[in-house]
Design brief:
By secondary structure, the protein is an all-alpha fold. The chain contains 2 helices and no strands. The longest helix has 52 residues, at 44-95. The protein is rod-shaped.
Length: 96
């Protein structure tokens, strides 16, 4: 499994699970047969499906943003680590 596939799975699978829970919570309060979009009144199954994909998309974007921010901060940490390592080597060379 490549690193990219692993990252996609780490983002999409938890987002899928959270979207399912979010769907249950929202539709325990909202009656899908009462929802309208302009003049269009979709049936309950269409509403459930569309809502699930919207929830999944939003949670995926949130997870993707978190992953991107962790990756960006990791590169900063890697740069700091490399500078510290270079300083240690420099100190060891001057004492040798």
């Amino acid at each position: 499994m490549t690193q990219r596939v692993l990252h996609a799975a780490q983002i999409l699978w938890p987002a899928f699970l959270v979207a399912g829970v979010l769907e249950m919570v929202v539709f325990s309060w909202v009656d899908p047969t009462q929802l309208r979009v302009g003049l269009w009144q979709p049936d309950a199954q269409t509403t459930y499906s569309l809502a699930f994909f919207v929830f999944w998309g939003l949670v995926t974007l949130s997870s993707l943003l978190s992953h991107w921010m962790m990756k960006a901060s990791g590169s900063v940490a890697d740069q700091r680590r490399a500078r510290r390592h270079a300083r240690r080597e420099q100190v060891q060379q001057t004492h040798a």
